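Notes continue from the previous slide.

Worked example: a multi-chain complex. Inputs as given:
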Amino acid sequence: MAEFNLIINGVGGQGLITLLKIISIAAQKEDYDLKTSELHGLSQRGGSVEVHIRFGKKIYSPLVSQGKANLVISLESQESLNGLHYSSSQTTFLINQYKTPTFTKDLSEKEILGVVKKISKNVFLIPASQICQKEFRSEVVAGIYLLGLAFSKKLLPLNPNSIASAIKKIIPGKYRELNLKAFNLAKKES
Amino acid sequence: MNIFMKEILLNKPGKKIILLGNEAIVRGALEAGVNFVSTYPGTPASEIGDIFFRIAKKVGVYFEFSTNEKVALEAGIGASFSGLKTLVAMKSFGINVALDSLLPLAYTGTKGPMVIISADDPNCWSSAQSEENSRGFAYLSHIPILEPSDPQECKDFTRLAFQISEKFKIPVMIRTTTRVAHQKALVKLGTLRRSNLRKTGFIKEPRRFVTLPPRVLEMKKELLEKIEKIKEFSEKSPTNYEFNRITNKKIGIITSGISYLYVREALKELNLNLPVLKLGFFYPLPEKKIRNFIKKFKKVLIVEELEPYLEKEVERLAKDVNPKLQIIGKELISEVGELKPEIVTSAVAKFIGRKLEIRNSKLEILAIKHLPRFCPGCPYWSVFAAVKKVAPKNTVFGGDIGCYMLAGTPQISAQDYLLAMGSSIGIAHGISQSKVKSQKSKVITFIGDSTFFHAGIPALINTVFNKSNPLIIILDNGTTAMTGHQPHPGTSLRTDSEYKFEWEGYPPSLKTKERPIQIEEVVRGCGVKNLKIVNSFNLKEIEKAVEEFLPKKETAVIIARGICALLGKYLNE
């Protein structure tokens, strides 16, 4: 693998930067070069947010180039449309079936999928927030759940053990178990 | 102390760890043996202060969140004049505030080495105000500016900046941008160093520290001489380097900062081997190196974000060595907005005359936008709801810098102007004094607690002194929320271990330990007679206060107090 380009998007407060940290630590553990980009401040207040994670032999740009994403994980379904810029027919989309209002014209799931599938046929719409709410009474781990799912679908060229050890490294005490459970739950569901 | 803080303090030279650009700056300062750090938070520079706030005591560094950037710089100047190694960090707008002291500092020079971080935010991801380019400060101040591309350079350039400052007795600026400051990558660590400076304190040297005429003009001359010497240093610096040096090529690229990484990406994508000159110095430029690079070229592409500063410099330098050189820059790369790898790839392709398949851009029209908004439980929801309910239709609403500028989003729509930190009150005063007789509109301005301390107080005094009557609502959520919950003079003490935030709810506690400076005392001290403190979550109370104060002929202030929802959540955890 020369390089792997991942976009995670959603709205501020969904834990995107935590996911970025986990994946970067896992990539480092596997001796990849890596670059990431994240946004702080105003953009975190419930607005559209995306983070970029790139790893491989030698990585220069912290931003994924147009059309070069291997995987887009959308923690909010409408945000998947903002991943299209980075996508091609080779890109896989993992989309959380969870929507927050834009206060302009919101799109239905059918509309969203209709547009995304014009670019790529590899689209999975998953009720991650619902599953996590039901299993753990916590929607916050929906991102970790989707990350687990990416492994079960063999969409992320890293060792799941590296992710588990990254979770152990950075998630503090009482949330550690919850995150590991969410990660492992999705892994089993392949 | 979390795992990332621990890693920043690892004393394992040669080990590679993942660092954010800002974290790498902290590490660079620690490797240089920094003694004194001051800052005012601002995205994308905030993490520098946040980290020092947490580690300062442990590593034996003095740290403070100053009331604003000018004061932060001045604190740093005092430390430098006393011989300490000093770091001052801010976003670029902070340099605007600090500029009045920065320009004479270039004249006096430093005693202890001093590094100033200026973080630009191309694309205004987290910036109202303007899309500022700190490179311009080089021309105003004659202060050297270095531009790192990635976290490794953030660390190394910070160390280098301390060395340059120490050698030439001049403050050195490091200019980052959002995609550098908030870029994570692997960084190879160097050795941590505790500075063994002999603490001498301030020693009187009026010739050095007093910028009184006629000495000031001598100082300017000395500064310009210094810059000539630093230019020689810049010529030799390995931070300005060529790669893909192919002698028979007639074209090449000059770039720096984040743009350099996109150039590397573009060359990889296009499978090209073009000579590239990568500049670590923006000021002073290694002019000989540039002349030497361009002298045999037919064409050169300048890849830079925002204004064409570098392009203009290359135009100037080409006049001597290669007047026919075709210099291409802003005709291919916009002056507005940040660069992206695909923008640079397409510019490089056009530069070499290669056709690049462009994807159907119609798709982008379908992009959706979640506008940022107040968090669930934010005290500002109720404040704006109450004020909008009772304010007459023709009310002019003044905005200021902080989370509450989201009042400008269509959902709330209570912001008729927005410019800079603290400006809401000064402008409200001007509008109030400019009213024609038939105009009954009143100005209601909103300003946050940290912003009030930062730059609101002189403007408040002005409204009282010059007798205007805006209604000023100070939104006291107990923290500098937007930039990541840093303390300010109304909340707590200086360092992390002293930072015991005890929100006493409403009515506010007068316990001085947790609230060293009371906003209400300041407001009264400024001569304001009409003052009310209300609970931000109590709509009725806010409505009543606004109704009572709207007809006032003098300045009126309402302090709306209610804790930031996010901070409250952290405190409960």
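Summary box: The longest helix of chain A spans residues 173-188. The first strand of chain A starts at residue 3 and ends at 11.
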